[in-house]
Amino acid sequence: MTLLPRATAKAILWLLLAVPAALMLRGLVGGEALPMDLLHPSGETSVRLMVLAMLPGPLIDAFGPNRFLRGWLSIRRNLGVAAFAYALLHLAIYVIDMRTIAAMLDELGLPGIWTGWLALFLMILPAAVSFDRAMRWLGRGWKRIQRLVYAAFVLALAHWLLLDWNWKPAAIHLLPLAMAWLLRAWRVSTKVTRERTFA
Ligand code: HEM
């Protein structure tokens, strides 16, 4: 039984996903925040949405497809596209903060900066093919393209680590995924052992 029509549920989801951006932009327009103040929240929101988009897959493999996880999986592509949208907002804020292309080019060679650019670049293709028709066209290739998100995630964490020089925030965002991956690996290995024992 579905509680809401699909289009309504999707509209509500996108409204909720837009709330952090609206608050950031309100702060900027209202003069309460400088562009540089918004680099942290926009980047962090992007990373958090990436984590939320990557979690349901391994959790379903580990615990089986219950109703909650199936619902979560069904909005996964929206979460991934929203992560990309926040990365674009992050870039827009960076451009406003830096003011000139020369200033941006000047620091492009810094590891803390090029890792961000590369992470964003790797997110483009998975986000661009995140709609139903592209999924059908690409078939098995679609999953391969989505795997770019893992590389983007690692680079985003490296970017964070290199800019912040504090391993804790990046590690905290990696932790739920690392636990879900370990759990999946453990469940798969115990399943294989059980099947071998009873074969
Ligand atoms: C387009 C390329 C990017 C550039 C030029 C860029 C640049 C920056 C800069 C200048 C900061 C502020 C560092 C400071 O605190 O002074 C920052 C912070 C951050 N960026 Fe990026 N970034 C890019 C892409 C990304 C992407 C794609 C993500 C995530 C998917 C991301 C996540 C973060 C996070 C989480 C922070 C917070 C670090 C902190 O201040 O604690 N960035 N970025």
TrEMBL record:
GO terms for molecular function: FMN binding; heme binding; oxidoreductase activity, acting on diphenols and related substances as donors. The keyword Iron applies. Residues 44-156 form the Ferric oxidoreductase domain. One of its GO terms (cellular component) is plasma membrane. It is found in: Membrane. The chain crosses the membrane at residues 47-66, 78-96, 116-135, 147-163, 169-186. It is a multi-pass membrane protein. The keyword Coiled coil does not apply. Its main location: membrane. It holds the Pfam family Ferric_reduct. InterPro entries: Fe3_Rdtase_TM_dom (IPR013130), MsrQ-like (IPR022837). Keywords: Iron, Membrane, Transmembrane, Transmembrane helix, Transport. It comes from the Bacteria. PANTHER family: PROTEIN-METHIONINE-SULFOXIDE REDUCTASE HEME-BINDING SUBUNIT MSRQ. This is Iron reductase. It comes from Croceibacterium soli. The lineage of its organism: Bacteria, Pseudomonadati, Pseudomonadota, Alphaproteobacteria, Sphingomonadales.
